[in-house]
Amino acid sequence: MVNRSRSDLIQGARDSAITLSQQLNDAGRYEDAVTLMTQARDSGLITVDEEERFHQQAIVRLNHRNMQQLIGSDPWGGGAGKIGNCSGIP
Fold first, then answer.
1. What whole-number distance in Å separates Cα of residue 36 and Cα of residue 87?
2. How far apart (Å, rounded) are the C-alpha atoms in residues 31 and 39?
3. What is the C-alpha separation between 5 and 28, in angstroms, rounded?
4. How far apart are alpha carbons 11 and 31 in whole angstroms?
5. Measuring CA to CA, how many Å separate 5 from each of 8, 9, 16, 41, 51?
6. How far, in Å, CA of 15 to CA of 17, rounded?
């Protein structure tokens, strides 16, 4: 019974660390998210491979968010459909 409770606590701490890291990344607090995952790895909640995978997932989400903002901001004034033609020449 004690081992089960301990493993439940460890799993809960692991899940909380992962969820909080994702929330920090989504809020733009990337350094805090990296620090949290490093602490989770150092305490044995996640493996080095998992830490790397979470880091890569955060980069993909950030790149996707940045691309959506770029498309939405229409930096070249040609609409999202003309984003590949920066010069405006047909």
1. 44
2. 12
3. 34
4. 24
5. 5, 6, 16, 21, 25
6. 5
Q: What are phi and psi of 84, to 5 degrees?
A: -80, -15
Whose tokens are 């979470």? That residue is 54
pLDDT tens figures, 5-61: 989 999 999 999 999 999 998 898 989 999 999 999 999 999 999 999 998 988 898
Q: Which residue has the tokens 């989504």?
A: 26
**Location of structure tokens 């459909």:** 81
Take residue 25 and report the two structure tokens written for it. Answer: 């990344």
